[in-house]
Design brief:
Chain lengths: 554, 279
């Protein structure tokens, strides 16, 4: 550990205050913590809580338009705020390094990984290029990247998302910094990849005795890695304590709420019994893009009235494509889709207005799913006018009714989406879908762009609407927590095929399909020893999945 | 650097305010030319090359016409023509661009290749050929420049419509079963308005300079009608006589171009800000 003493204080932040220049909004106010060598502090909070702002402030940096207005940021006793720009530049990358959420956006696609990873130590004249390369290879093998000797010769697009995220950790570690700032480094990864990356990060921090700040919105993730946890909300500290204390005995109501939400027991919904024919039937459906054959490969699935069917899988499993095939945006190649007993034409254009009305969609990103130039009256009212041809006054009354159903104030009717919060926008998206009075709503990752508590509210709303209106949901998601809470049936997708389907309770109970088991075992739990346990069982499951995939291919 | 004046709900920057004032003064001169100008543009009111006096604030030109009056009428001609040309080229370019983006397939290929063909020809030479053959009547001039300008508008509007067309709210409209025209009118156009407006300002400046260039070469606006480009050409020899005459129309061209650019920059800055995450 080249003479570094464990437990020595490397960073002290006190009374930190960051404001947005011009408007004067306070982004972070009076935040303070200390970081010792070998220690990890987790910063937890919803979006807008100021986590990333604090993370960047540690590097003496703010986003454009913001300014650090008060407080101290002492790195080994020297105040970063008082440093000259060249001094600060010498510090960044070399002594304090940053790992961003999106590795894909942080690497230059025109340079090999070696070039980019050795850039910091070489530029800061800490190592010769040859030494930097040796160090990079050592880091690659520590991070369990495949073929460490040659891994760095590849370009960023030639490695997977999880590998790139680890390469980013290698880049940050290349100059042997004293502090690492992780900003949501696993949020963009699939759940099964997240486990590996998380384990790699933890080992790296432990072996090098580096101090780290770990920013995330997921308490279960931070439970695996942090010694101390600081909960932020609206730019202020809500609670700060050891990881055990925060997770087991949270003191503040807000923290308790966060912890309780994550620990909420799952009540599997019982299957709806009824002899009526299914609302939507998919039979051996096959679909391809021109460049990718058989993205959906022989999918058979039923949705009954009042059902909530979850389609789960990792990115690239074809779950969103399945939604496109059902709605007709992507015409199916083979197989049949029947809706209320009648066959739906493959193409959107061949479907009748009534067929279109009965299947509606809600999207992941309410920002791009709502036209920001239109008022809520236009957005929600258009389906009412389009499908039912009602006069203007009645449309307005119906929009008000729908807003009330969404728990949105009636005077929002003349607002535009940019004037709403993320959760409110998602409610508008739901209202627009309901305006068509559909039988089936396809929900494509509707909560994944929202904060945890806001997402919970949306799920609660969807459940209430189902009870009141009897609408069926096809729920596309990668979040198994959501599935367990809301779905009575589940379909697990892997590479365009269904590997398991049926009642949620049955699919998620032994005997599990190996892939289902892998997915379930990869969902972080709030226990501090979860990661170690997960890693133990993992290799066997991964091997079983590989075998299952070979079987599928045959 | 903002001033407490708002336009379209956004605060004006100082350059934008200056630009706006320049544009308003020019437009006022163009619209009110018969009232503002003391003489007609073609009237010979005194000796050639006469120096300025209280009746003729900028003096007289090579034929004895009042320079100030010609400058004011020149604004009317130059700005009026540029505005008509820009509107025409936008009508053509935006319609074709949006249609190509939404229809895709062969319509897109056909329009895009046609545009490539037009873009591959040097505009000034193309205009020279057309105007020499068809004559220099104003309608011919207007249509020629508009057609030459439309491909650039086409490229922008096609790219904008392609980007907006990929967003989910357009998918929602398609899933609802909306027609092509409705999608273009309600979903794409309002979201493309800001960059198109900025481009409009830019294209206006170019059309304006293009007319000036053609007039300077003698194939633009024909005498005795005054336009700033032909005024520069007509008076260029007066510079030898120590007269400021050619500098007035040249300065007017420069100032209006700068004014429009200021406002366009401000619009582009607002648009770029709007492109950030969320709102």
């Amino acid at each position: 550990m080249n003479g570094r003493r464990m437990g020595e204080e490397v960073l002290e932040v006190a009374g930190l205050r960051v404001v947005a220049r011009g408007v004067g909004t306070v982004l972070v106010d009076d935040v303070g913590f200390a970081l010792r060598r070998g220690e990890v502090v987790g910063l937890i909070g919803e979006s807008g809580a100021g986590k990333s702002t604090v993370g960047l402030a540690i590097l003496g940096y703010t986003r454009p338009g913001c300014a650090i207005e008060g407080g101290r940021i002492l790195f080994q006793g020297r105040d970063i705020r008082a440093m000259t720009p060249p001094e600060r530049r010498a510090l960044r990358g070399a002594s304090i390094a940053y790992i961003a959420q999106s590795a894909a956006a942080s690497f230059n696609p025109a340079m090999t990984l070696f070039e980019q990873i050795s850039e910091i130590p070489v530029r800061h004249r800490l190592m010769t290029p040859a030494a930097a390369k040796v160090e990079a290879i050592r880091l690659f093998s520590e991070l369990e990247l495949p073929d460490p000797e040659r891994f760095g010769d590849r370009y960023p697009h030639q490695v997977s998302g999880g590998q790139l995220q680890r390469a980013m950790a290698a880049m940050a570690m290349a100059a042997k910094p004293d502090i690492l700032v992780f900003d949501e480094p696993t949020t963009a990864l699939d759940v099964t990849t997240q486990v590996e990356v998380l384990a790699a990060f933890r080992n790296l921090i432990r072996e090098h005795g580096t101090a780290a700040v770990y920013i995330t919105h997921d308490l279960a993730v931070v439970a695996q890695i942090a010694d101390h946890i600081m909960v932020l909300r609206h730019g202020r500290t809500v609670e700060h304590g050891t990881a055990d204390q925060i997770l087991r005995e949270p003191r503040e109501p807000y923290t308790r709420h966060l912890v309780a939400e994550r620990l909420a027991p799952h009540r599997y919904r019982a299957d709806i019994v009824g002899g009526e024919p299914p609302l939507l039937e998919l039979q051996d459906v096959v679909a391809s893009y021109h460049t990718l054959p058989r993205v959906i490969d022989g999918v058979t699935l039923d949705v009954r009235r009042g059902d909530t069917v979850a389609v789960v899988g990792e990115s690239g499993s074809g779950k969103s494509t399945l939604a496109r095939v059902i709605t007709g945006l992507l015409p199916r190649e083979a197989g049949a889709i029947r809706f209320r007993g009648e066959t739906l034409p493959p193409r959107l254009r061949e479907r009748s207005r009534d067929q279109l009305r009965r299947v509606q969609m809600i999207y992941q990103m309410p920002d791009v799913a709502l036209n920001s130039c239109q008022t809520l009256y236009e957005i929600i009212g258009r389906p009412v006018r389009f499908y039912f041809g009602r006069p203007r006054a009645q449309v307005r009354a119906r929009v008000r009714e729908l807003l009330a159903l969404m728990d949105l104030p009636a005077d929002f009717i003349d607002r535009t989406p940019p004037e709403l919060s993320g959760g409110q926008k998602q409610r508008v998206g739901i209202a627009r879908a309901l305006a068509a009075e559909p039988d089936l709503i396809i929900c494509d990752e509707v909560t994944s762009a929202l904060d945890q508590l806001v997402g919970e509210e949306i799920l609660g709303l969807l459940r209430r609407l189902q009870d009141e209106l009897g609408v069926a949901y096809l729920f596309i998601t990668h979040d198994l927590g959501t599935v367990k809470r809301i779905a009575n049936k589940v379909a697990v997708m892997l590479k365009g095929r269904l590997v398991a389907a049926g009642d949620t309770a049955r699919v998620f109970a032994p005997p599990l399909h190996p892939y289902t088991e892998l997915l379930l075992a990869s969902v972080p739990e709030m226990r501090r020893d979860w990661l170690d346990e997960a890693l133990v069982g993992r290799q066997r499951t991964v091997a079983a999945v590989r075998n299952a995939q070979i079987e599928l291919a045959q | 650097m903002t001033v407490p004046v708002r336009l379209f709900g956004h605060r004006l920057t100082l350059p934008a305010l200056i630009g706006l004032i320049i544009i308003l003064v020019n437009v006022a001169a163009a619209v009110g030319a018969p009232v503002i100008a003391p003489f007609d543009q073609a009237d010979i009111v005194g000796d050639a090359y006469a120096d300025p006096d209280p009746q003729h604030v900028l003096g007289l030109d090579n034929l004895g016409r009042d320079l100030f009056s010609r400058l004011v009428y020149g604004a009317r001609m130059s700005i009026g023509l540029a505005l008509i040309i820009t509107c025409l080229s936008f009508g053509l370019g935006v319609t074709a661009g949006f249609a190509a983006a939404v229809l895709r397939g062969w319509a897109d290929v056909l329009l895009s290749r046609l545009v490539d063909l037009l873009l591959s020809m040097p505009t000034l030479i193309f205009a020279f050929v057309v105007l020499s053959v068809l004559g220099t009547a104003l309608p011919v001039l207007v249509v020629t420049i508009a057609v030459l300008d439309a491909p650039k508008v086409f490229r922008l509007s096609r790219a904008l419509a392609m980007n907006i067309g990929a967003l989910e709210y357009v998918e929602v409209a398609r899933l609802r079963g909306e027609g092509l025209w409705w999608v273009i009118r309600h979903e794409i156009l309002p979201n493309a308005a800001a960059p198109l407006l900025a481009e409009f300002g830019l294209r206006f400046s170019f059309a304006f300079l293009f007319i000036a260039a053609l007039s300077f070469l003698g194939i633009g606006v024909q005498p005795p009608a005054a336009d700033w480009g032909s005024m520069v050409r007509d008076y260029r020899d007066m510079i030898n006589l120590d007269a400021m005459a050619p500098l007035y129309p040249a300065g007017a061209i420069a100032i209006l171009t700068i004014g429009v650019s200021f406002v366009v920059d401000w619009m582009l800055a607002i648009h770029a800000r709007g492109q950030g995450e969320g709102a």
